[in-house]
Design goal:
Elements (H helix, E strand, L loop, with lengths): L6 H22 L2 H5 L6 H13 L4 H8 L6 H9 L6 H41 L11 H25 L1
Length: 165
Amino acid sequence: MGMEITHRERVEALLAEAAAEHASLRTRLPADLAASLPVDAQGVTRAIDHLALAAGLSESERRELIRPHAVNPAVLHARVFGRAPLTRETVVASFVEGARVRADALLALADTIGGEPLGLAVRKLLLADPPPASVTGDDVIPALRATYAAHERAAVLIAASLDTA
């Protein structure tokens, strides 16, 4: 009889799988393209979906959490300019916008799952590494990576809260 996997273990596995996929993808891309994909949101996105399911959110509530993803700068650029190459700023702006959407989703889940105490703990984590305010400059990629890492820590914290509930 096997032990049931905890929500924390599941979220950590989702994050690790996505990180490995991202690293593998980057090794297969030309350097300039790899550089334009400094972070990967798949792990956090999958973790959010797992947490939303575990929290008992309906399908429409889960869709509502991630719907803002449909209107990020890269998507808008594609609608307006077609297949014209994206500038580094547009790509980074898309990552920043995605980070804002996921931060909102994580906060909503924290409030739903753990009430005010978990909501405050997750807010504190996310505020320590907010998305970069500017999409230009040498510090934007390290700042973005720190934001994504904070999102991963928040997802693990929410999962651990589910396990103890």
